[in-house]
Amino acid sequence: MGDHDDLRKFITDLAVVHGRVVLSSGREADWYVDLRRVTLHHRAAPLIGRVMCDLTADWAYDAVGGLTLGADPVATAMLHASAGTDRPLDAFVVRKAGKAHGLQRRIEGPEAAGRRVLAVEDTSTTGGSVLTAVEALREAGAEVVGVAVIVDRGAGDAVRAAGLPYRAAYTLADLGLVA
């Protein structure tokens, strides 16, 4: 099996949890995809970096990140996967709100202003979190080239309606789940 198939197995074996849950969007579901069980796993995280870099290889960007917390391990995995390649990536973290102390930055890491960046998320249902990150990045002077998620739960239309290309490594159908 290749990276894509190996990562799908990690997701279905470790991250798909069955039972009634309320999503961050407020919607209820009979299952939950807890991707932190995979994004923070020692064997799965490197796969995430390679799969997400492959998924977006034809987009021109040099930094990756999104709204903390879901995007952080995805961006870090991509940063590590790109190290030593001809296309190294920086990573950044978008805070939900600016800091009231220190440098009072909303975006942590290398400067985003003037850079072409990719906004990522582990999974997205409505697109709300990743679009919040996109707004902050644009306010900071970054050019957002697109949005990529590991698992799409339905956010594609909202992201595309905001004028951004959208890609997902896996759909719910890929994971044997029904929306």
Automatic annotation (TrEMBL):
SUPFAM superfamilies documented for this protein: PRTase-like
Binding site for orotate: 125, 153
Domain Phosphoribosyltransferase: 82-157
Keyword Transferase in annotation: yes
Gene Ontology molecular functions: orotate phosphoribosyltransferase activity
Catalytic activity, reaction form: orotidine 5'-phosphate + diphosphate = orotate + 5-phospho-alpha-D-ribose 1-diphosphate
Top EC class for this record: transferase
Sequence positions that bind 5-phospho-alpha-D-ribose 1-diphosphate: 95-96, 99, 101, 121-129
Cofactors named for this entry: Mg(2+)
Pathway: Pyrimidine metabolism; UMP biosynthesis via de novo pathway; UMP from orotate: step 1/2
Keywords: Glycosyltransferase, Magnesium, Pyrimidine biosynthesis, Transferase
EC number: 2.4.2.10
The keyword Glycosyltransferase is assigned to this record: yes
Coiled coil: none
A Pfam entry, by short name: Pribosyltran
Function: Catalyzes the transfer of a ribosyl phosphate group from 5-phosphoribose 1-diphosphate to orotate, leading to the formation of orotidine monophosphate (OMP).
Assembly and binders: Homodimer.
PANTHER family: OROTATE PHOSPHORIBOSYLTRANSFERASE, URIDINE 5'-MONOPHOSPHATE SYNTHASE
Full protein name: Orotate phosphoribosyltransferase
Native organism taxonomy: Bacteria, Bacillati, Actinomycetota, Actinomycetes, Micromonosporales
